[in-house]
Amino acid sequence: MASSADQQHRLPTPYCTTSAPPPTPSAQPNHSTSEAADALSRLLHRLPPTLSLSLPSRRSSPPTTITTPPTIYLSDPIPALHTNLLSASQLGFFQLTHHSIPSHLAHSAESESLSLFNLPHDRKQQYFTKNWPLGFDFDDEDDESGSGESFCLDSSCSTESTELNLTSLRKFTLEMEKVGLEVIEALSCAIGFENPVREDPTRVSSLMWISEGSTGNNKPGPVVSGRFYPYVVGLHYQIRCQKYSMLADSGWVCVSPQVDSVLVTLGDIAQVWSNGKLRKVRGRPAPNLGDGNHPHTISMSLLMTLPVDSTVSPLLLPRATGSNKQDEANREDNGDCDNTIEERVLFNSFSFEDYAWRVYHEQIILKDPLARYRV
């Protein structure tokens, strides 16, 4: 996995009105339906960070049905593991049990994360210099949207301060990262797409996203807190009994994972890599505060994502054709011994940086942000 310094080197510096914005693709599919979105994206690229547009966080009525996520054991025999992953991929989420992450480490990491929100506001900005998407982010508008403060850290949880002790959070992040890499490898084998991490670990990067959410006036319901950012898979350790609401391709769902399990959500990049075979969850799971007895909560989500200079496209593996003796004879007569067929590509390639910037600032969640890239 790339070092903290390497990761920060790949991340762009904050945009401002005096610096050139990252290139916005001049040609995207479905121009007739995306011109307005492209214009807004170009405008956002040219706004200084302090003037970036943000939409209010959306709260909807919590789903009435609570679902227990499918359970996956990474230690299962390969045939059983692949069968279970194929089934879970149609939902876009599942829970891992019997994993390698110690429970006490998760609790210690949460304690250190809580201490970050207790820092004075100026210290938060000083210790976590903005280097998009890394840094401290907050909504300073006095409304009841439920959005709050959040910290986005690299895999080393590096800061600008020597006073902060984030040892447990750093170890927790690295342990979650190991599990995330195992999940990506297992998914690629089960679904049938190339795993770019297998030969080059720098093809993915990890972000620890720590968010604070509040329902506002103790109102029950799911809270969408913090920014949205594209990812391959997201990992969320279940420290205590807690329900989460999230927007899957099938609609809003409410899940209640087992305590000490890891809730895994499949992201938009995983859906493109799999050429649409995987369902996805848009954004990160939002804590559902239920009856409002606990109006404040934090969530720690590890996002296995991409370096910003990446290009996103389906990673297809050749599919074997059904064959018989006559087919084999015909191929031999033609000098063709390749027993594979090409799969139709369902997504156009696109710039990860442009896509991430648009999703991050427009906070698109109710409308599928991948729709414009479908063939």
UniProtKB/TrEMBL annotation:
Protein name: Non-haem dioxygenase N-terminal domain-containing protein
InterPro entries associated with the record: DIOX_N, IPNS-like_sf
KW Nucleotide-binding (keyword) present: no
Residue stretches making up the Non-haem dioxygenase N-terminal domain: 88-131
Alphabetical keyword list: Iron, Metal-binding
Statement: the UniProt record of this protein carries the keyword Metal-binding: yes
Biased composition (Basic and acidic residues): 325-334
Residue numbers spanned by region Disordered: 1-36, 51-71, 317-337
Gene3D superfamilies the record matches: B-lactam Antibiotic, Isopenicillin N Synthase, Chain
Top-level taxon of origin: Eukaryota
One example GO MF annotation: metal ion binding
